[in-house]
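Write out the bound-state structure for TNX.
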Amino acid sequence: MKNKFGLTAILAFVLLQSACTQKTPTDLSKTAFIPNPVSIEATGHSFELNASAVIYYEEGAEGLQLIADYLSSEINRISGMSLKAEPTAETPKNGIYFTLANEDQELASEGYELTIGKKLIAIKANAVPGCFYGVQTLLQMLPAKTEAGQALELASGVIRDFPEFGYRGAMLDVSRHFFNVEEVKQFIDFLAMYKMNALHLHLSDDQGWRIEIKSWPKLTETGGSTEVGGGEGGFYTQEQYAELVNYAAERQITIIPEIDMPGHTNAALASYAELNCDGKATELYTGTKVGFSTFCTDKEITYQFVDDVVRELAALTPGPYFHIGGDESHVTAHDDYVYFVNRVQEIVVKHGKKVIGWDEIANAELVEDATVQFWADVENTTMGVEKGAKVIMSPAARAYLDMQYDSTTQYGLHWAGYIEVDHGYTWNPATLVPGITKENILGIEAPLWSETVTNINEVEFMVFPRLPGYAEIGWTAPEKRDWEEYKTRLAKHGPRFSDLGINFYRSALVPWEE
Ligand code: TNX
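---
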């Protein structure tokens, strides 16, 4: 009797104990990481994260303070705990510790090693991005949101991890519908959560010009004043654009600005009469047709204009790339198109940036270091590779975030087909197009065109849950990717989406956890 009571008391005590800390499995290999890491070794213990933990970073290692502060603010957002972040000259005995050590070739510039011991969590990388990705992995071990002040348990072990591709991105079309600074920051946070490192902003199109160009002010005054459906549109001042660049950079994300030309230019043509061959400004356009507009390729003012735009925007953009669009120029004669794209590439190079363009630009002579973005045309893309270009893989039928999931999806288009969550996941960039292999490919990008989405809530519905899959395709080697297994990991991210207030598509193909 006495014994039995003793056992009950112990049991009750254990239960009470575990009610005070948030229990996560002590088997690290059971955690549902997306993207799937290179290797996970579980050691069967746990680390308790409570308010007394300190986040240390190696003294003198440039950039680590930012990472430590970011982790501290994320832990604060999740649990209300305020952890101190401070530099240290020696490896601490407990807490969390960031260090840079350039001795592990395999980790390259974006990899990391995360070691969770009973007392110390150590994140080691060759460079700052690796530490940031180690943080994202660590955050996926914690709930997305928890009661204030609650201690958190983390399973112990070692994760070694590095990406398959160096370019892992998404595109947001801010032209067809405008998204404000706060909305773009939310989008950036989504990319950061899944270790993506590039945000391509489609800043101009027929329906709207969204970036202030001081030497051509009517672009935004007139060209920025509306959007699809006739709403009020909007634009980023140069200061706001710089703010977005910084916000992204703090999350190891490079912004790639796109000015789409010579087609998709009605907003500019409506703002400045002189850019039109007949010298007359066009009407603003709020519909969704494509391919009807073109710059006048044989007027010198066109190239003065492009030079000014590229100069101002390149100066605001620390990243190496400038995207010149080049798609669907259906009303530009072929020779005019080639002449224009050749000249514009030289302008981009002159202002210190590398050229990216949609796959059509392969019809021009390509400058050194040009990249073609494959979206539809295999022939163009293959021609680009033959001309020495690298490729970003954005196959519309697999990677377009504006394609509907199925015929019942309330937003989106389906000209390239429906993309259910499995269809978006089950492809390999290195084998999709015969003749285009891993060596040719910079990485992958999932574009979200915004003819049919008008606010961040609708953006979320198209982006989630497909974005984590694209992130995994970019990060994880194909041998470690399998839909049947992936869907069980994705299912565990459902509650995370909910806790973060993300409006996501509850695909019936995923066994969502509550
Ligand atoms: C094609 S993809 C376009 C865009 C549209 C998109 C809609 C590409 C380079 N051009 O102008 O917004 O389809 O899915």
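---
Residues 23-161 form a domain with the Chitobiase; domain 2 fold (CATH 3.30.379.10).
The longest strand covers residues 39-49.
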